[in-house]
Amino acid sequence: MLTIKPVNLAFVLLLALTGIARSSSGQAVDGKFDVGGRHIRLACQGSGDPTVVVDSGLGIAPAEDRSWQGIAAKVAAVTRVCLYDRAGRGGSDTNPKPVTTSADAAADMAHALEVAGVQGPYLVAGHSIGGLDAQVFAARYPSRVAGLVLVSTTHPDQFNIWASLLPAAVDGEAKAITEARAFLSAVQSDPSRNPERLDFRESEEQARQLHSLGSKPVIVLTHSPKFRMAPGLPEPLAIELEAATQQMQKQYLRLSTNSTQHIAATAGHQLPDEAPEFVADGILEAVRDVRAARAADDVRH
């Protein structure tokens, strides 16, 4: 059972003044938590250990997203789950920095959970760019991580590998190839081109610092190989790009000696929308794996 840290009177008054809702273990928590002059929203429900913390794809606020709300409701029947809105998304204040990175998102998550009294270690579930954040969180706060669930997650080498597979520019090439090349160049060089002003190149480098979680559970949930990341590309090239993507997803299995991959039959990159049961089942599998690992460790000691 999760426990809440004791708080002093000054902190209680601070919560009252900022309108933050706080509760004991097992009760819903939905509020904005101070992370140093800014507030980050967490929406938590359910009880049990480990606590699952969800970080979503670019531009999405999971606490307000119906797909993630539905997934969280299923997870909450088994354990505690918190939906985390990154800075500038949903109920969270914008980060004043002109450019942000996954390290900023990881720091905000760590600070908000601490202020909210939600204790770890956490099972961090990240979709798309949220999975890149999850890798950085695990690299920077290893003692706070019980395991990872990577949901069609952005790989730190993804954009470089895709760009390397595109043919050299030639006159009269397909418009989709020209557009894909321009996008891949811009997404890494110009943070203003995405809604969260995220520095992809720096965030990718931060994620590369995660080398291993030892034997902590890692569940890799991968979209269908039938999915096409860049619609309109000539099919042979699209197949080559997707094969590289699938291989990158498989590489995540190296992060732990206790890792499993599941590949969706037909659902694409937006797995939380297209295959919410698939995502919920993967998270719950990771919960069981964390509990089994802890039980085995208790027996050994």
Short structural description:
This protein is an alpha/beta fold. It has helices spanning 9-18, 66-76, 102-116, 129-140, 158-165, 175-189, 200-207, 235-251, 271-274, 276-300, and strands at residues 29-34, 39-45, 51-55, 81-84, 122-127, 145-151, 218-222, 259-263.
Give the topology:
Blueprint: H1 9-18, E1 29-34, E2 39-45, E3 51-55, H2 66-76, E4 81-84, H3 102-116, E5 122-127, H4 129-140, E6 145-151, H5 158-165, H6 175-189, H7 200-207, E7 218-222, H8 235-251, E8 259-263, H9 271-274, H10 276-300
Parallel strand pairs: 3-4, 3-5, 5-6, 6-7, 7-8
Antiparallel strand pairs: 1-2, 2-4
Helix pairs in contact: 2-10, 3-4, 4-7, 5-6, 5-8
Describe the structure using short key phrases.
301 residues, alpha/beta, Rossmann fold, eight-stranded mixed β-sheet, 10 helices, 8 strands, disordered N terminus
How does this structure look, described?
By secondary structure, this protein is an alpha/beta fold. The chain has a single domain (9-300), classed as Rossmann fold (3-Layer(aba) Sandwich), CATH 3.40.50. Helix content is 42%, strand content 15%. It has 10 helices and 8 strands. It has helices at residues 9-18, 66-76, 102-116, 129-140, 158-165, 175-189, 200-207, 235-251, 271-274, 276-300, and strands at 29-34, 39-45, 51-55, 81-84, 122-127, 145-151, 218-222, 259-263. It has an 8-stranded mixed sheet with strand order 1-2-4-3-5-6-7-8, with helices on both faces. A hairpin with a 4-residue loop joins strand 1 (29-34) and strand 2 (39-45). Helix 3 packs across helix 4 (129-140). The longest helix has 25 residues, at 276-300. The chain is globular, with a radius of gyration of 20 Å.
